[in-house]
Design a protein that fits this description.
The protein has twelve helices and two strands. It has 304 residues and is mainly α. α5 packs across α6, α6 packs antiparallel against α9 and α11 packs antiparallel against α12.
Length: 304
């Protein structure tokens, strides 16, 4: 009887292992299929946008599109230089403002704030992320633009600075929350060893914890870049929407996303005007990818 029970137990264990192996294989194939599907969707979008956008060059030369700031579809002028520069400058200025503030907030949240305040701030940060971008744009429109106009004695207050400041506020919660998680994931033993060797608390944070959390902080910056360069509504409400080159922080200009959303509904499909907007979308995608690759490259060189 005991031998029969042992045999049955072994058979049950073998059947359990076979089921577990089968479930593992199913999960593996499911993840592979999901990854392949997402890859296919991404490349399909790139192919469609690229195919439609590159048709612009049948009527507009590449130098005219990339190096001319004259945008007037009624006169067949399709120069996108002002939109490209506007997108690039607004994104970089927003990240330059938002990154130090977000990282400082993350350091305070994880290493200086008391427990009760930490819990309040975490919920507040999550709330800020959920606020629609049009709300940020509206607040900037009624508060920030008049403030800049009166403070700096400029004509309108619209322009690169207003859009970048609001954009910096929008990306700051992303940088703060992701950086805080990265700082929190640093092993406590590193911090304790640094303090035990006589380093001050600030020296430990700046020389040990932040460098150890650098990959997570870099991820936060990349996510902020992705949101900043793709933001439409808030930037459109504050930047002035004028196709002209930037010559100061208060120059009304426009971005690729803003011009696409304003004009796409008025253009016939497969026209030169419509194709040029698709080409703008392709350029926007390439700028975003280029920024991300550049940041990863310089971070890798610094780590090496």
């Amino acid at each position: 009887m005991e031998q029969a029970a042992d045999i049955k137990q072994v058979e049950n264990l073998s059947a359990y292992r076979k089921r577990k192996l089968f479930y593992d294989k199913c999960g593996r194939y499911l993840f592979i299929a999901a990854a392949c599907l997402m890859t296919l969707i991404i490349f399909s979008i790139i192919f469609f946008v690229g195919k439609q956008g590159l048709m612009t060059f049948t009527a507009v030369s590449p130098p005219e599109f990339f190096f001319s700031a004259k945008w007037d579809p009624t006169e067949n002028n399709f120069g996108a230089l002002s939109f490209i520069i506007g997108s690039f400058l607004s994104t970089m200025l927003a990240v330059a403002i938002g990154t130090p503030l977000g990282l400082s907030g993350a350091i305070f949240l994880e290493k200086a704030a008391p427990t009760f305040l930490k819990n309040i701030l975490r919920h507040a940060v999550n709330l800020y992320v959920a606020i629609p971008s049009v709300i940020y744009g509206y607040i900037g429109l009624i508060l920030l633009v008049p403030f800049l106009r009166k403070t700096f004695h400029v004509a309108t207050g619209f322009g690169l600075l207003a859009a970048s400041l609001v954009l910096a506020i929008m990306i700051m919660p992303t940088i703060l929350s992701v950086s805080a998680d990265a700082l929190n994931s640093v092993p406590k033993s590193l911090e304790e060893a640094s303090l035990a060797l006589g380093a001050t608390r600030w020296q430990t944070i700046s020389k040990v914890i932040v460098p150890a959390a650098a990959p997570g902080i870099l991820t936060a910056i990349i996510l902020a870049l992705a949101r900043a360069i793709g933001e439409t509504m808030a930037v459109q409400m504050l930047i002035g929407n004028t196709p002209r080159l930037v010559d100061s922080l208060f120059t009304p200009t426009a971005t690729l996303t803003g011009n696409i959303v304003v004009e796409m509904g008025n253009t016939p499909f497969d026209s030169v005007w419509g194709n040029s907007l698709f080409l703008m979308a392709l350029v926007l995608l390439l700028i975003s990818v280029g920024m991300i690759i550049s940041i990863r490259y310089f971070a890798a060189r610094k780590a090496a």
